[in-house]
Amino acid sequence: MKARIVYASMTGNDADMAEILEEDxxxxxxxxxxxxxxxxxxxxxxxxxxxxxxxxxxxxGKMTDDVADFYDQLKDLDLSGKYFAVxxxxxxxxxxxxxENVFDxxxxxxxxxxxxxxxxxxxxxxxxxxxxxxxxxxAEEMSEKLNG
Length: 148
Ligand SMILES: Cc1cc2nc3c(=O)[nH]c(=O)nc-3n(C[C@H](O)[C@H](O)[C@H](O)COP(=O)(O)O)c2cc1C
Prior knowledge:
Bound molecules: flavin mononucleotide
Strand content: 15-25%
Pfam family, one: Flavodoxin_1
Protein name: Flavodoxin
InterPro entries: Flavdoxin-like, Flavodoxin, Flavodoxin/NO_synth, Flavoprotein-like_sf
CATH architecture: 3-Layer(aba) Sandwich
Oligomer: single chain
Structural class: alpha/beta
Distance between the termini: 11 Å
Number of strands: 6
Function: Low-potential electron donor to a number of redox enzymes.
CATH topology: Rossmann fold
Order of helices and strands: EHEEHEHEEH
Number of helices: 4
Domain Flavodoxin-like: 3-143
CATH superfamily: Flavodoxin domain
């Protein structure tokens, strides 16, 4: 099974999440490729079974340019028949805007026909032990659903 992880990260927290998930999925036998959103074309998802997007949220929910560009590319795709997962790091200090961009992408993936494989994983700031456990559990669910 092929998994594609795309992430956006300003200060490294989401990059760390991507690395943790990549290692988990490799341990479960997935063929995984990971790259940063600003260096990736969303159409890369088309060659994969599992499409993953991991993002920060800045600016009280408003997307920064790198995230918005990727979102606009995604809009034009048809991901019917594929699974997706979204994750991200935010800060609860932003209350109603906590991890808002993660949920924007969750909605978009559904709109373009992909099926959510596990519920959105949101964490606060840098991934500590509890956050790592959440990512590990999500990876396990991905493996159960796709590898049987
Ligand atoms: C200017 C600024 C605005 C932010 N706005 C939000 C926000 O609206 N919602 C949220 O959940 N977190 C917000 N955050 C927190 C970041 O999303 C959080 O620190 C995250 O871990 C950063 O991820 P990164 O290290 O991958 O860049 C903001 C942080 C900064 C510095």
